[in-house]
Amino acid sequence: MSDPISRREALKSLAVLAGVVVAGAAAREAQAADALPHVAPTDPLAVSLSYVEDASKVDTKKFTTFTPAQRCSTCLRFTGKASDAFGPCVLFAGKVVSTNGWCSVYVKKT
Ligand code: SF4
Question: Per residue in 52-66, pLDDT tens?
Fold first, then answer.
């Protein structure tokens, strides 16, 4: 009697299953980020960090080292996808920041 599933077929199935699991996790993460509230500019932590939802509105007289390339999507602390409108930042647990936002502790992602 021959083996009902060859080793190659089993490996292919495992690879497909791994892809499905990864895709599912990514979809759940995106859904979870969508469900989170946006950080309000009036949030006490946001105020203390001078967070703005639109980096083009940064007070460049006050923050003289700001450059237009600086925004949450290029910040080291941003853990979301640059292609999304909002995503998580490690400083604001349970909330999401605008990918086009900015705050005074911005650190360029390397
Ligand atoms: S730390 Fe970075 S990602 Fe978080 S709000 Fe500030 S600029 Fe945006």
Answer: 999 999 999 999 999
Could you tell me how far CA 46 lies from the centroid of its own chain? Answer: 17
Q: Which atom of ligand 1 is nearest to the CA of 104?
A: 6
Check whether 6 has a pLDDT greater than 60. yes
Q: Where are the domains of the chain?
A: 1-35, 37-110
pTM: 0.73
- Residue 86 Cβ contacting ligand 1 at under 6 Å: no
Residue 72 Cα to ligand 1 midpoint, Å, equals 5
103 lines ligand 1 (CB under 6 A): yes
| Dist CA 84 CA 88 (whole Å) | 10
Class of domain 37-110: few secondary structures
Give the torsion through C-alpha atoms of 95, 65, 47, 41, to 10 deg: -50
Burial of 87 (0-12, 13-18, 19+ CB in 10 A): buried
> Could you tell me the distance, in angstroms and rounded to a whole number, from the CA of residue 41 to the centre of ligand 1?
12
